[in-house]
Please model this.
Amino acid sequence: MIKEFFNKCLDDTTLSNSAYDNARDKYNAIGEYLEEYFLDNYNIDVKSYSQGSFATETVVRPYTEGKDRSYDVDTIIELNATKQEYSSSELKRIIREAFEDSRYRDDFEEWDKCFTINYASMGSYKFSIDVVPSIPEDFTTKQQLAKITEESERVDTSIAITASLSTTKDDEWVTNNPKGYAEWFNDVYRSVILRKYELGSGVIYSSIEELPDGSDVNQVKNIVKALKRMMAVFYDHQGYINKPASIIISTIVAKLSQNQFSLDEFEHLKYIIENIGLFSNYRKEMSSRHRTEEISNIIRKEDGQWVMENPCNGNDNLIDSWNSDSSAPENFIEFIKYLQNTILPSLNGQETKENYEIIKKAFASSTDITKFYVPKVELTPKAHIKPWRG
Model:
């Protein structure tokens, strides 16, 4: 029953289908508008697609200050143009003009790397959409990336993201590859599910679509969502303000899952916690370059610098901020210890109210424990009363 309760708490804190559909409809509408606008006014083709948690389908409700908070969606707007045709600030300027000439004119703000469109509440949910302007990365940069990127075959989808305001003359660009990352993550999750069902049934499947109806195909995604939610709640309760980006959790889970053959989602989660827990043995003065644990090949220290490479963008150190904030790795280690010392024992433990309370608190869930936990009643033998004995 602990397993069922854990899954219910996860469901309780996952973004609802209606909220997910609402966000998808709205970012699709923005993409369609910009596609039409730039085709009509500049004869430029535009592609739009989500990135981050929406692209990997691992969205959970954000949690800060003891409450579920509004969520945002990152949408890439990729114009079929070049750096020779537009500087970073010029690209931002023409997109600003597109928003000023639209129904979004009163609802957007401009930042160096994106535009944010704020929406009114939908029931208990509030959300915004970050529109990230970009163009395809140039050929030379892609060639250089391929030499230093783990998933070198995926660098072709790399883009250059604007890093300048439309009111400046700066020409700042940042290389990113959100589409390549989403494809990599989804390929890992699909391969895990296929191995799971092939191992269990002895049948070879060519794709997830061939699996029997009712098959649970969200194993890796659910583990990512569970860890992301527990991390958000833990950091909030501890008062830590440097919560790692969710891509760090999704990358760790995907990499640790690549050689995992577990048939059970719950056991898979415990496997991830046990292996990521080895990271808590690190010390600031200890180089992890020659460590043998699998986690040390994902997060490591090189020449005193924390490194966690984006598998689809060799120029992107996902934990570079740790090198300027010494509390960041220490706080993450505390979260890992919490998973090891508190969460894992409750998942492996007996059906006690205390273990249910630990799980509920970890998710900050409103799930009713009494529907899952049935306390054992110890019966004390009593002497039989025989009325014929006076």
About this structure: DSSP finds eleven helices and 13 strands in the chain.
